[in-house]
């Protein structure tokens, strides 16, 4: 949990547990549309590419650090066919750049996530799992590229 709090604070530009990073942007990469990510493990081989099938472990957080979803819930990585719009646009943009074994922390702007609609709680449609216009933070791992 300490690791999660540190990376969330890093992406938010806030002091992490009383420790302020000297230059939090130094290790942060950015896609043209604004997805920011920090490569934690480089992985091996070629990047997935825009039409690959990938298996991804993920954990998602709101900007305040609140957990909202994880592949660990099902106990296995999810399979995504890139280019088919099965996942949020921020993932469609980021996952093709990553090789097998890569691990990243990524901050997805709201407009590349669930945007103004947000994502309703599947157990209570009167609540949101992801509120409208909310940036998201993910820990992602490319388990396999098929």
Report on the architecture of this protein.
- By secondary structure, the chain is mainly beta.
- The protein is 12% helix and 39% strand.
- The protein has two helices and eleven strands, in the order H-E-E-E-E-E-E-H-E-E-E-E-E.
- It has helices at residues 2-12, 89-94; strands at 29-30, 36-41, 44-47, 53-61, 67-70, 78-81, 99-100, 103-108, 119-121, 124-130, 136-145.
- The strands form three sheets. Strands 1, 2, 4, 5, 6, 8 and 11 form a seven-stranded antiparallel sheet that branches. Strands 3-7 form a two-stranded antiparallel sheet.
Q: Strands, helices and their partners?
A:
Blueprint: H1 2-12, E1 29-30, E2 36-41, E3 44-47, E4 53-61, E5 67-70, E6 78-81, H2 89-94, E7 99-100, E8 103-108, E9 119-121, E10 124-130, E11 136-145
Antiparallel strand pairs: 1-2, 2-8, 3-7, 4-5, 4-6, 4-11, 8-11, 9-10
List keywords for this structure.
single chain, 146 residues, mainly beta, seven-stranded antiparallel beta sheet, two-stranded antiparallel sheet, 2 helices, 12% helix, globular
Secondary-structure class: mainly beta
Overall average residue pLDDT: 87
Q: Rounded to an integer, what's the Rg over CA atoms?
A: 15 Å
Task: Please describe the biggest sheet, giving its number of strands, its sense, and whether it closes into a barrel.
Answer: 7 strands, antiparallel
The tally of helices reads: 2
Extended strand count: 11
**Helix-strand string:** HEEEEEEHEEEEE
Beta-sheet strand percentage?
35-45%
Head-to-tail CA distance between termini: 32 Å
Low-confidence stretches: 13-22
**Global morphology:** globular
Helix content: 10-25%
Assembly annotation: single chain
